[in-house]
Specification:
- The chain contains 3 helices and 13 strands; from the N terminus they run ααβαββββββββββββ.
- It is mainly beta.
- Strand 9 and strand 10 form a beta hairpin.
Length: about 200
């Protein structure tokens, strides 16, 4: 008699592949947000602050960043395909989309907003992730470092719940563009509890 069996193992998701062994050190709430194999929604709320200068207003318009406010409902829809992930963020009805793919260097990802693409270094530590901008392109043309936005983007676990904190400042010392922070969890699910062993 002959018997056969087929076993399938999903390919590593984007951040799991980029982080390698560092993936196992992440809290469960962060691993849940970065373990989408098809399409999944995450929901929460956010506080948004926007810069008041002309540069901030123009850049918020270009990128589609939401207006300022507190307790704004947030939905993030993450869609994965063979090349990377698409993130659609909805802040109280204001949507903006970015596309993330593996970077050209180990430990990096590329994130694109329309004609802009940024090279983000994925740092781990203090129970979370930070994503500083290292390089950028506009329509494929390299941007001078002086013209890159200053990004302070962090993901942390707070009480078993995923917390994001993203502050973007304009280059050349032109001040705040936007600062949005809040929490997310899988839509319709209880918050992920801290202390779950790494997969």
């Amino acid at each position: 008699a002959v018997s056969t069996a087929v076993a399938e193992t999903p390919a590593p998701t984007l951040f799991r592949a980029v982080l390698g062994e560092r993936w196992k050190s992440l809290p469960a709430s962060l691993r849940a947000l970065h373990s989408v194999h098809d399409i999944e929604d995450f929901a929460g709320s956010a506080t948004i602050e926007r810069g008041k200068g002309l540069a901030a207003r123009l850049l918020c318009l270009v990128f589609g960043f939401p207006p300022a406010g507190d307790g704004i409902p947030v939905t993030v829809t993450k869609t994965r395909d063979e090349a990377g992930e698409t993130w659609q963020r909805d802040f109280g009805g204001r949507r903006f989309i970015s596309r993330l793919v593996p970077g050209a260097r180990p430990g990096h990802v590329f994130e694109s907003f329309g004609p802009f693409t940024f090279d983000l270094r994925v740092e781990t530590g203090e129970g979370g992730i930070s994503l500083p901008v290292e390089r950028g392109w506009f329509l494929g043309i390299p941007m001078p470092r002086l013209l890159l936005p200053v990004s302070e983007a962090h993901e942390r676990d707070v009480g078993g719940r995923f917390r994001f904190d993203v502050r973007l400042s304009a280059p050349l010392g032109l001040g705040l563009i936007v600062h949005y922070r809040g929490t997310l969890a899988p839509a319709g699910a209880e918050p992920v509890r801290a202390g779950v062993p790494a997969a």
